[in-house]
Specification:
With 448 residues, this protein is mainly α. It is 66% helix and 1% strand. The chain has a two-stranded antiparallel sheet.
């Protein structure tokens, strides 16, 4: 039996914990955003989305607490790597900065700012605790495959939600998003951020490529993910997908495919140059060239974030509300109000100061390095390498874990914990030597 069809220990032994974690990691659709754009001050904190989200968080925290308190075995059944300790000082920094966040100059003070920010940090703690509880209760040989299965299920569930909702709620599933300045319709719309949907679709694409049965089922899965990314119309994710496919073809495929890839690349360069106006029109999403050159006004947001960070380089402004208000205090434009810094490292700088930036850089550097060194150990580790590379690229133009907990945050936690777990060495030793991968071996022919 291949591991693709293997019944894991945790879902059978801890069904309540497993399915509660899956529901929490999937989350709920955004019929009305909950403090992502700041609209909760005008439309109320409690709405359909926020009530469902708070209820799921409370139930998940209760199930996790009961599991840890009533189970006889220790809460930490498997020791994880030292890299996970980087999250503790980062969390403490965000909490401390939030408690002492300054009063904004242009944004009216709200007593709920600190409460919402601390609650949002609590969502990260719940997600981390659930993933940690699942991993620690898995046998050594099943731990990493279990996390990979969770990545695949979360990603594919969201793709199914969007495509099922598209004919039922077309204005919600395909339209403009309040989180983006662009007014071009995108798949995801208000239901889920198109950027999040595209990121999950890339994860689902490579999950299908590595673990779906060979043949029509695998091709259909990859095609559906590619169409989803195309309709989501997010530039960073589309470029990231092309780059990751290029890396896969050059280093993890057969010799014939590598030759074909290089040939296609050589042919594609002059074609792109000749049709540059068409490609420029597509990637501009109807915006002016100036907007495209500023990365959809991201450079202006970065400038405002740097100006704000210089005023409080030690502690920052606090998680979520403090960082958002700091950007708006230094924002000189009226076309839109940025909800965050659109850069992981600048967002960390605003939220927790210079030390937070250092910790975030360490998390990315360590995760990327370990994923590179372990990617030859099997298809599970190759998938983790691709996801870590994707999230690292995405951190330049967006945030993965320094903003409120989102579906991309789920993907990052599952990927990072799967990469840095010390037990991956034990898992590798248990694998048969023929199952190990080498650069140039076609992953589609590997046993999963």
């Amino acid at each position: 039996m291949t591991r693709r069809h293997q019944q894991f220990f945790v879902p059978r032994q801890y069904p309540l914990l497993y399915w509660t974690a899956l529901i929490y990691l999937v989350g709920v659709p955004n019929f009305l955003h909950f403090d992502v754009t700041g609209r909760t001050h005008t439309q109320g904190i409690f709405n359909l989305t926020s009530i469902c989200q708070i209820a799921i968080a409370i139930i998940s925290a209760y199930v996790l607490s009961i599991t840890l308190l009533l189970e006889r075995r220790p809460a930490v059944a498997r020791r994880l790597g030292l890299e996970l300790s980087l999250w503790i000082p980062l969390l403490l920094l965000f909490v401390l900065a939030t408690l002492f966040q300054p009063v904004a100059r242009l944004t009216p003070y709200s007593p709920t700012d600190r409460i919402i920010s601390l609650y949002r940090l609590g969502e990260w703690v719940i997600a981390f605790g659930l993933i940690r509880a699942l991993y620690s209760r898995s046998p050594t040989a099943e731990a990493t495959p279990l996390l990979i299965q969770m990545i695949g299920r979360v990603s594919w569930i969201w793709i199914c939600i969007v495509w099922i909702a598209l004919p039922v709620l077309p204005s919600q599933a395909y339209g403009t998003s309040d989180e983006l300045a662009s007014k071009v319709p995108q798949l995801g719309g208000q239901l889920i951020s198109p950027s999040y949907l595209a990121t999950l679709s890339i994860a689902a694409f490579f999950y299908a490529l590595f673990f779906f049965p060979k043949g029509l089922f695998r091709r259909a899965g990859c095609l559906l993910c590619a169409v989803t990314i195309f309709l989501a119309h997010t530039r960073i994710e589309q470029i990231s997908l092309l780059f990751l496919i290029l890396v896969y073809c050059l280093f993890f495929s057969s010799k014939l495919l590598r030759v074909l890839t290089i040939t296609c690349f050589v042919i594609a360069v002059p074609v792109i140059v000749a049709l540059r106006d068409i490609f420029l029109l597509y990637f501009s999403r109807g915006q002016a060239l100036k907007t495209l050159l500023t990365l959809n006004d991201r450079t202006f947001v970065w400038q405002a974030a740097i100006e704000a960070g210089r005023e409080r380089p030690i502690l920052g402004y606090g998680f979520l509300a403090g960082a958002r208000n700091a950007i708006r205090d230094h924002w000189h434009y009226t076309n839109w109000l940025p909800p965050h810094a659109h850069n992981e490292y600048l967002q960390a700088f605003l939220s927790g100061g210079a030390i937070a930036v250092f910790l975030v850089v360490l998390i990315y550097a360590r995760g990327l390095w370990l994923s590179m060194t372990n990617c030859r150990r099997g298809p599970h580790f190759v998938l983790l390498f691709f996801l870590m590379l994707l999230l690292t690229i995405r951190s330049i133009g967006g945030s993965n874990f320094t903003t409120p907990y989102t579906r991309v945050g789920t993907l990052f936690l599952l990927t990072f914990i799967g990469i840095i777990a010390c037990e991956t060495r034990a898992l590798t030793r248990q694998q048969n030597s023929p199952g190990k991968l080498h650069v140039g071996q076609d992953l589609s022919e590997s046993t999963v």
